[in-house]
Amino acid sequence: MSDFKFIDLFAGIGGMRIAFDELGGECVFSSEIDPKACEVYKENFGVDPKFDITTVDPKKDIPDFDVLVGGFPCQAFSMAGKRKGFEDSRGRLFDYIEKILLEKQPKAFLLENVKGLKSHDHGNTLKNILERLDDAGYFVPEPRILNAIDYNVPQNRERIYIVGFRKDLSVEPEDFHYPGPVDIREDQRCTLKSILEDDVDRKYYLSRQYLDCLVKHKETQSEKGRGFGYAILDPEKDIGSNTLMTGGMGRERNLVVGKPLSDYSPVNGRHSEINHENIRRLTPREFSRLQRFPNDFRCDVADTHAYRLFGNSVAIDVVYYIGLEMMKTLVKANAIRSYEERNPNSDKYDYSKDKENTINT
Predict the structure, then answer these.
(1) C-alpha Rg value of the chain to the nearest Å
(2) What is the Cα–Cα distance from 22 to 40, expressed in whole angstroms?
(3) What does each C-alpha distance from 175 to 11, 32, 330, 333 come to in angstroms?
(4) How far apart (Å, rounded) are the C-alpha atoms in residues 113 and 74?
(5) Sign, Cα dihedral of 219, 225, 229, 231
(6) Cα–Cα nearest to 333, from 177, 178, 165, 179
(7) What's the start-to-end Cα distance of the chain, in Å?
(8) Cβ count near 278 (within 10 Å)
(9) Residue 320 CB-half CA count within 13 A
(10) Helix, strand, or coil here: 215?
(11) Which residues is 16 bridged to in the sheet?
């Protein structure tokens, strides 16, 4: 038996689901419209999440549940985009989260978005969201921007997290704390170096021509006073990568020097040979590890899709630690029964403890 039931909205490839599964939850509904994401989700969880949230009837289509989780589309608020907010149809998808909360009244929720949401429209967009969550009947502690690298995730990835509890549960402000940086022993720390693959296909090495284009582009940007351009990481010094981004130049923010090759001839029909500095992209598997997906997670799609899907996902361990604090709060409020109460003879885990020692702030 599970401790609680949850639904996984804007599910992507299931990053948030993995975290809440590990916390003892049972996922009773998933929603995602990206065909490739649905394909990967079904391959790993045995469930096809292909539900368009704009057409879902919460009363008929969604069973009762305790916790709503969702990383609603961030492009409308991202500093890398046009930042149209609620003027963008993707920004208005928050309306459907609100609709589900009003209809189903779960005990708690966790929402994730880009940090740009906090400053969008001078803070008015987030203010509007918090007012609507309050009107829907939820106590919402001050949202926090957390960096994944503080939670044993080898990636500098700042995201805003919004947690809420139904008001009738009488959760007090001091009952919930966002997790502080995780205290990890040095020999247990997950680092950029630790996630690199040993044998990497030649196709991930940049061609001489493309590398020269990157160098020229960076010089041009520098002359215009802009700092954007490719970046070569040093696994011996850099604990984590830069934020994973999808598409073209985004992947070039996380280049590494690979092992020397015995063959530098052109790959896959390219006209230019491989660069002799051995500079390469990270592989899709390395992208998945930078989000802390398990090694047995399957993503049998073309690399272009894999990069996008992992880049759009969540840093799983950050979600886990926030979820852990949510579970402690709900157990304290007698809103859910702990695993120990349902399974008194089990030593699975105790919500009062952590798989690692955390410092609450």
Answers:
(1) 22
(2) 19
(3) 28, 32, 9, 9
(4) 6
(5) positive
(6) 165
(7) 32
(8) 15
(9) 25
(10) helix
(11) none
**Assigned token pair, 111:** 């929402």
76-80, 123-127, 225-229 — which one is most confidently predicted on average?
123-127
Could you tell me the pTM of the whole model? Answer: 0.90
Q: Which amino acid is at 70?
A: G
Instruction: Please report, for residues 238, 253, 313, 337, the alpha-carbon distance to residue 21 in angstroms, rounded to integers and kept in the order given.
Output: 31, 32, 16, 16
Buried b (16+ CB within 10 A) or exposed e, 75-102: ebbbeeeebebbebebbebbebbebbbe
> How would residue 75 be classed by pLDDT, with cut points 50, 70 and 90?
low
- pLDDT tens-digit readout, 208-221: 999 999 999 999 98
Angstrom distance (rounded) from CA 251 to CA 139: 39
For residue range 188-239, list pLDDT tens digits in order. 899 999 999 999 999 999 999 999 999 999 999 888 888 778 999 999 999 9
- Reduce the DSSP state of residue 30 to 3 states and report it: strand
Distances from the Cα of 246 to the Cα of 87, 253, 307, angstroms: 23, 11, 6
**pLDDT of 89:** 46
| Residues with Cβ within 8 Å of residue 61, at least 6 apart in sequence | 29, 51
What letters, b where the CB count within 10 A reaches 16 and e where it falls short, cover 214-248?
A: beeebeeeeeeeeeebbbebebeebebbbbbbbee
Q: Cα 230–188–159 angle (5° rounding)?
A: 45
Residues designated catalytic: 74
Residue type present at position 230: Y
Residue type, 183: D
Helix axes 15-22, 316-332, angle to 10 degrees: 40
Strand pairing report for 67-70 and 108-114: parallel
